[in-house]
Each structure stands twice: as structure tokens, then as C-alpha cells.
Write a sequence for this structure.
């Protein structure tokens, strides 16, 4: 079977979401893309995580047509495809209904950058989309969800902000790989919970300064990053 490595990476990312408590039952999905071949591997729709194997992961082209696999792809496939088309630097997408990030999404509130844990991964507040119009919900809902995300990111760099809250719905994250997208989903849930607790202790807590945000984000990201070890 072709693309075994991609399937295994996507399965592992999905299972990581379960291990970290970000999904219940069949909630959520992760996908990865082979840009050279123009193929996306994604979790099948409604299949329990504990029963999935690499061969269950569905391969589709960028038009959503199944190329390999016998199971229907995730119902959120169209959203993933829109993101891959709009954000050419990303290699993986994750969608969860993790509790605390979903609280912010349902409240249609961006998550403010209240501390350096947030700033290490996300360059500023986690944005929230506009609510979908009734016509957008009734027709091509998942596609229009993707378009709502892309509209929200006009003028923004998805590499500096690898997360979004879909208003009334839940979060999406992405990364250069599906493993990184899953990692970002875990961190997003942590900072969502931390922000809720911070505002419970002090409702007037203010975002950190631009200088502190810049220091923490750019010491880990970009040309002048110095955190961690040099890759050889």
C-alpha cells in the first residue's frame, strides 16, 4: 500500500489527541498532506480511535476525491482542504473539541496572550472567526468554515499563529507536519485553560507587553531563534 508513512503519521497524531485528553469518542480529526503528490491523509469519519489502523486512514486528492481507502473521510475534510490550499507552508491540520479552547470558541472570544507560555507558541491573541451566516451553514458548511478561517487570517501569517477558534464551534490548529499540528492543539488547550483561570483570579489581567511577546515568540521561531539545539 502506498503512502504508509503518511498514514502512520496521521494515525499517530490522532492517537496523540486521545492520549492528551483532547477528544472524546469520535470527536476531532487530524490530517497530513503530501504536497509533492497532492494527496491528503485524514481520519475516517465516525471510526473509534481505539479501533483505527494505518490502513483505515483515507487518502484523498485536493478535490476531496478518495484515492485510496474504503472508509469515508472525516466530515471536516472540506475545511482541511481549504486550509491546505490557502496556507501552502502547512503540512498538517488538527480539529478538536477540547474543553477549554471550545469554551472560548463558543463564547466567540479571542484568547488573550496573558503570559509567556502562550507567547512561546502563538504570536498574539488566538483569533476567533466571524459567525457563519445561515446560508453558509445550510450549504457547504464545512467548506464555508474553511473560508471563514481564511478570511480571518487576511493580513496574518499562519506560521506565527497556528491556531484559530471557529465561533460557536471549536478550535483548529496546524503546523509544518501533522505531528506539530497535534502538538499545537495540546498547547492551545493548555493556554486556553490557563487564561480562564487567570481571568478568574484577576478579571482585569492584562495581556503581556509587546516586548515580552516578541522575546518569547522569536527566541523559538524565525531566523534569530536560539531556543533548543541546532539541528545537524
Amino acid at each position: 500500500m502506498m503512502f504508509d508513512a503518511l498514514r502512520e503519521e496521521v494515525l499517530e497524531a490522532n492517537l496523540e489527541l486521545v492520549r492528551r485528553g483532547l477528544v472524546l469518542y469520535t470527536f476531532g480529526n487530524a490530517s497530513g498532506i503530501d504536497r509533492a503528490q497532492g494527496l491528503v491523509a485524514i481520519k475516517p469519519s465516525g471510526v473509534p480511535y481505539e479501533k483505527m489502523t494505518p490502513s483505515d486512514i483515507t487518502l484523498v486528492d485536493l478535490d476531496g476525491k478518495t484515492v485510496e481507502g474504503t472508509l469515508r473521510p472525516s466530515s471536516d475534510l472540506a475545511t482541511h482542504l481549504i486550509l491546505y490550499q490557502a496556507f501552502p507552508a502547512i503540512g498538517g491540520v488538527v480539529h478538536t473539541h477540547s474543553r477549554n479552547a471550545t469554551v472560548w470558541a463558543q463564547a466567540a472570544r479571542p484568547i488573550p496572550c496573558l503570559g509567556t507560555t502562550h507567547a512561546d507558541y502563538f504570536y498574539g491573541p488566538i483569533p476567533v472567526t466571524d459567525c457563519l451566516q445561515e446560508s453558509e451553514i445550510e450549504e457547504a458548511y464545512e467548506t464555508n468554515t474553511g473560508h471563514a478561517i481564511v478570511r480571518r487570517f487576511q493580513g496574518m501569517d499562519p506560521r506565527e499563529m497556528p491556531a484559530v477558534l471557529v465561533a460557536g464551534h471549536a478550535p483548529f490548529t496546524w503546523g509544518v507536519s501533522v505531528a506539530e499540528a497535534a502538538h499545537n492543539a495540546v498547547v492551545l488547550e493548555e493556554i486556553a485553560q490557563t487564561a480562564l483561570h487567570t481571568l478568574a483570579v484577576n478579571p482585569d489581567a492584562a495581556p503581556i507587553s509587546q516586548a515580552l511577546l516578541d522575546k518569547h515568540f522569536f527566541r523559538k521561531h524565525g531566523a534569530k531563534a536560539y531556543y533548543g539545539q541546532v539541528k545537524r
Remarks:
- The first strand starts at residue 29 and ends at 34.
- The chain has a mean pLDDT of 95.
- The longest helix spans residues 178-201.
